[in-house]
Amino acid sequence: EYCSVPSQDHDYGMEDYGKGVARWCPGCGGHSILTTVQRVCKDMQYEPEKTVVVSGIGCSGRFPHYMGTYGFHGLHGRAFPVASGVKFRRPDLNVFVVTGDGDCCSIGAAHWVHAIRYNMKMVALLFDNGIYGLTKKQTSPTSPLGTHSNTHPRGSVLPPINPIQTTLGLANVSFVAQTVDWNSAHLYATVRKAAEHPGLAFVRIVQRCPAFMRDLYGDIAVNPKNLILLSHENGINLKPKARKAFGRVIEHDPSNIHKAREHAEINNGIPIGLLYQNTDNARYDEYGAHNLGMGVEEKKQNLESLLDQYS
Ligand code: SF4
Ligand code: MG
User: Fold this and answer.
1) What is the ipTM of this complex?
2) Domains of the chain
3) 287 lines ligand 1 (CB under 6 A)
4) pLDDT surpassing 60 at residue 253
5) Ligand 1, atom 1: closest residue by C-alpha
């Protein structure tokens, strides 16, 4: 209810959400994610001047430069606190957070944990290519075991963080989905579902990086049978024709967090779909929105009514 209402005077087109060619490598997964976010903004008729994209540092950090909306290209790992500040003071704005696997899961990990707990309405997109791409191939927290990189030429030695499994273990988590950049139907359906969620929607996008991880996600992307679709009427729905592309389809109820955690651990393919959604969780931006312009006594009453609502 705090999102911007589409203007009656405009019919926004794709060109209103960004122009020009993004300066990512040819074949980079970032290109399809950019087009998808622009399409979702257009289909939701978000007012460009009431939409903000916040990023950290990394290849994904360039995202706000390519959007025709407001944007903030922030410090390394700090996309979440900047986005949280924007949303808290201006709950009427549509907020997207764009972060990478190094940005979110390493230097920004503390902010990731608390942004999930604050559960302010925004779409968080984790561009996970399993490597530090901008700085030319260092092991990241999500690099698969044995990844050859400039920091580990003989292969990385630590097991990677599983971002969806981690997020599903955090306090007040309300939405976790996983998708891949090379399945445009699923990518669109996922970002759209995330944009419609009333709290913080965390989406891990497995992203191709042909410059440095060609063997890994390049090979997986060639064979769509490596994708496992998590399907449910309350999940992310695809047309019957699009469903045929998947190697396996698993029926999964996204209200079941225990099953979501089990599916997050699947490692003989990439499970994609809506793992978990709960629309009743406490939201800190509601507290902020109610507080704007209030006196001390009103703020106290507001807090009490929110505590009643969520207890
Ligand atoms: Fe994309 Fe990888 Fe090139 Fe970065 S280095 S722009 S992630 S292909
Ligand atoms: Mg990366």
Assistant:
1) 0.99
2) 14-280 (3.40.50.970), 282-311 (no CATH)
3) no
4) yes
5) 28
